[in-house]
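Could you join me in thinking about how sequence relates to backbone shape in a protein? Label the sequence line and the structure token line clearly, so we can match residues to local backbone shapes. Once you have written the record down, we can walk along the chain together.
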Amino acid sequence: MNLDASTLWWLMAGGAVVAELLTGTFYLLMLALGLAAGAVAAHAGLGPVPQLLASAVVGTAAVLAAYRVRRGRPGDPPARADRSVNLDVGETVHVDAWRPDGTALVRYRGAHWTAIHRPGVTPAVGAHRVAELVGNRLLVDPL
């Protein structure tokens, strides 16, 4: 059985797709694009070196593009600040006074809680919204 170069490239591209399906690594799909570029170069009648160059250039460009797109997107909020995980996020509390250490004692859900503010924010009295839970403290933002 004699396989020509394009068939080998297509088999490697298919193997990369199968490996991606088994592992869930999106970057393997980008490498499969590079391998497909090598197959197209083989179909065009180019020699082994241009096939390898086409595969390497397209695969590398696809991986870098995917990396930049993923890195540019904002990530998911941490679980402690996610309303679907923590039902306290988004609730309103009233701060009567801030202590010198940057904490306040607030009444919330029938109990006393320690509230803290974000670094760099000047503490103010009044209504605040719970932004996240930090341990057993409420991180609050002024309304």
